[in-house]
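anyone seen this seq b4? input:
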Amino acid sequence: MQANLAEPLAVEEIARRLRLSPKRLRTRCRRGLGLTAAGYRRTLRLGRALDLLRETEMSASEIALAAGFASPAAFSRAFRCAFQSAPGQFRKVSPRKPA
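predicted toks r here
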């Protein structure tokens, strides 16, 4: 999943590559990670987006695409839900990592 954030694979394709049924993959994700496969992928995407917000000058639209969100609006909604802050607000209060 992490290797394909910009162009995410469907859960069914991930399961096929792992030689598991989609149901088995979902069960393993819930047991091992405490999340669904889609929830884990969202966590990975949001982590990537956080890194890009901290380390780059990319726009929110560019970050949305680089982190695999379908649209800037979808990215903004997911970010607000996870961090109770808009991406732009986060960038204003979060210190940048040194280059």
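The mean pLDDT is 87. The chain has six helices and no strands. kinda curious what u guys think
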